[in-house]
Every structure is written in C-alpha cells, then in structure tokens.
Amino acid sequence: MSDHNIERSLARAAKGNVTKFFSLKMISFKGDRAEFNVDIPDTCLNPLGTVQGGMVASILDEATSLTVNIYSEDKMLPNSTDIHITFHRALKKGTAKVQTKIIKFGKNIVSVEGKAFSQEGRLAATVLHTAILKSLV
C-alpha cells in the first residue's frame, strides 16, 4: 500500500461532507485494518444528550467505506448493499475512535467490520458493512 494511494483516498474522502462533518482522521492503516479518530459535534446529539443512532451508523459507514477505498489502492469504492449495526452503549460528544477490518474482499463484493469506541475506550457499536465494489479506473 503506497502512501500516494492512501493520500489520494484521504483527499477524495475529504471532499465529502460526511468526512468533513465528523472530522474523520486516519490514525493508522496496516494490512486489512484501519484506525480513525472522529469528532462528534453537538448537532449529533439526541434529546438524551447522547449521539443519535443514525449518526453512529454514518460514522461507521464512512470509516468502513474509506477503508475499502484505501485497501483497494484507490481503485474501488463500495456501493452499500447492507449495513447491520449493533449498539452496545451510548456515545457522547467529543472524540471517539473507530477501528475497521476488511473481512472479505472479493472480485465484486466486500464485507467490512467496524467498531466505534467511546471516549473511555469502551465498545459502543459494531457494524458489518457489505457492498458492491465499483471501479474508479
């Protein structure tokens, strides 16, 4: 995985509003795994003062999609067919961590796991994201 392809993937993602909105930043990318920081603003909070579930799903969708693009060396983007999310505990406003892992990267389909962690490092949500691969070349 070249730094050039990683930079191109990150630059493409930075053009999108979701990456900007959550200030998604890649911490590391090794093999089939990535780690990101995400800043959750006030506008994501529900009336209970915790992050609304759809916002958590958006965070995990964005991070897993970016992982696919980087893993494919900036040659593919995922077109989601299924996102299954399980919530374990609430997230709060502030900086959270997301870890992703490519489970299966096939010729046409990809499956990616994502995990969101609270500011205290506790597992808050997991996602299984399946998508059709769309070529950028």
Name some characteristics of this structure:
137 residues, alpha+beta, Thiol Ester Dehydrase, Chain A, 3 helices, 27% helix, globular
Outline of this structure?
By secondary structure, the chain is of the alpha+beta class. It has three helices and six strands, in the order H-H-E-E-H-E-E-E-E. The longest helix has 19 residues, at 53-71.
Explain how this protein is built:
The chain has one domain (3-135): Roll (Thiol Ester Dehydrase, Chain A). It is built from three helices and six strands. It is globular and about 45 Å long. A six-stranded antiparallel beta sheet has the order 1-2-4-5-6-3, with helices on one face. A hairpin with a 5-residue loop joins β5 and β6. The longest helix is centred in the middle third of the chain and has 19 residues, at 53-71. The chain starts with a helix and ends with a strand. The chain is an alpha+beta fold and 137 residues long.
SSE topology:
Elements: H1 3-15, H2 17-21, E1 25-30, E2 33-40, H3 53-71, E3 76-87, E4 94-105, E5 109-117, E6 123-135
Antiparallel strand pairs: 1-2, 2-4, 3-6, 4-5, 5-6
| Largest β sheet strand count, sense and barrel closure | 6 strands, antiparallel
Please provide the ordered H/E string of secondary-structure elements.
HHEEHEEEE
> Structural class from helices and strands?
alpha+beta
The share of residues in extended strands comes to 35-45%
Number of helices: 3
Number of domains: 1
Helix amount, in percent? Answer: 25-40%
Global outline: globular
Under the CATH scheme, which architecture would be assigned? Roll
Task: Name the poorly predicted regions.
Answer: none
CATH superfamily: Hotdog Thioesterase
Mean pLDDT: 94
- The strand line-up of the biggest sheet is 1-2-4-5-6-3
What is the radius of gyration computed over CA atoms, rounded to a whole number of angstroms? 14 Å
What kind of assembly state do the chains in view correspond to?
A: single chain
CATH topology: Thiol Ester Dehydrase, Chain A
Name of the CATH class: Alpha Beta
How far is the N terminus from the C terminus?
17 Å
Number of strands: 6
